[in-house]
Write a structure and sequence with these properties.
The protein has 13 helices and 8 strands. By secondary structure, it is of the alpha/beta class. Strand 5, helix 8 and strand 6 form a beta-alpha-beta unit.
Length: about 350
């Protein structure tokens, strides 16, 4: 189920330009595509998916499969709401797999069959293993957001894998990417299945790292004590699900599609669905694992309250970074430094209790 909604391409470029330019695409190419696009949904010259796909095809023809995967990722952005964008997503996957021999860490794509809602669902995962990893050590389970999926955050996945020296199992949260089910709080069942699988790949210790909406699921698995530890980077947990928080930059349509609506929902229907995501019941409990919570103080999507609500909790480190926004992306080196200091300390404490 999917739908298109009123959305200005220039609005998305204004918000996402730095992300487009900083993830590896040549700036002149990004600028050229930006100048060429005049419509968000038209599959023709001047249309978002057409112009980004044309750039991706040129990269593919030149053998630059990594750049092609990035460009196809922007072609399908912000969500596969029509056939042209679904085609772009399929081509992104093809190009990504062709680029895999150059990733650095060893890589494999697996399709897991996991319990969900009384049945089963297939969940493709990408597994990165550093060449220096111990045969039996901790594993990082990593989930991206509602519009930036596992292939889109590839650079961060490789960096985490290399810096931590640990295997990374990356997946798309429900309602996004390769997922076959809508986004819902019940998606936590899929995460539990992924945690169980990740335990079989190492010594049983699993740290769930969640980015943006993926941070909602890592916050949940950390607060519930289902993962052994959790990193929440820009994750909404309570206040972000209040009415009116997702109206900017097309986020209402992105989230509405992820939730499984087949047409633009009313504001009341959208916010009623989001209200069910609140983690207040778990925040009121004390069964959590060690947690690291990080975000930018100027996030337009996730209010400061969803970071500060963790203040005073046991086994929890909090960092609200000034002068940066959602997921503190403009201060990513600082974020990685925070994670690289917290992770070995936390893992050492966990391993000492085994």
């Amino acid at each position: 189920m999917s739908y298109q909604w009123p959305l200005e391409a220039k609005e998305l470029f204004a918000e996402r330009y730095s992300q487009m330019a900083n993830t590896g695409l040549p700036v002149p190419d990004v600028d050229a595509v930006r100048a060429a696009i005049s419509d968000m949904w038209a599959d023709e010259r001047g249309g978002w998916v057409h112009e980004w796909s044309a750039l991706a095809a040129r990269y593919a023809e030149a053998g630059s499969h990594d750049l092609s995967a990035l460009a196809y990722g922007w072609a399908r952005f912000p969500t596969p709401a029509d056939e042209a964008k679904r085609t772009a997503l399929a081509r992104q996957t093809e190009q990504y797999l062709l680029a895999a021999p150059g990733f650095g860490p060893s890589f494999r794509r697996e399709v897991l069959d996991l319990p969900y809602g009384g049945g089963r669902t297939q969940v493709p995962v990408h597994v990165f293993t550093p060449h220096t990893a111990a045969e039996t050590g901790p594993v990082l389970l990593v989930s991206g957001g509602v519009d930036s999926w596992k292939m889109d955050v590839h650079g961060l996945l490789v960096t985490l894998c290399s810096h931590a020296g640990l295997p990374v199992v990356a997946f798309d949260i429900p309602g996004t990417g390769d997922s076959q089910v809508p986004m819902s709080p019940d998606g936590a069942e899929i995460v539990r299945g992924l945690i169980g699988h990740a335990r079989t790949l190492g010594n049983g210790i699993v740290v769930h790292v969640g980015i943006s909406m993926g941070g909602y699921y890592s916050a949940r698995s950390g607060l519930a004590g289902e993962a052994d530890a959790a990193v929440v980077l820009g994750g909404p947990v309570e206040a972000a699900f209040a009415g009116g928080r997702i109206a900017r930059f097309g986020m209402d349509g992105i989230v509405g599609n992820a939730l499984g609506f087949d047409r633009k929902p009313s504001s009341d229907a959208l916010y009623a669905a989001l209200a069910a995501f609140s983690l207040r019941p778990l925040l009121d409990g004390d069964g959590q694992a060690p947690m690291l919570v990080v975000n930018g103080a100027d996030d337009v999507h996730v209010p400061q309250d969803d970071t500060l609500v963790f203040e005073g909790r046991r086994d929890t480190d909090i960092h609200l970074l000034p002068d940066t926004g959602h997921c503190a992306v403009t201060k990513l080196p600082e974020v990685l430094q925070i994670i690289s200091e917290w992770l070995p300390r936390t893992l050492a404490a966990l391993q000492a209790t085994r």
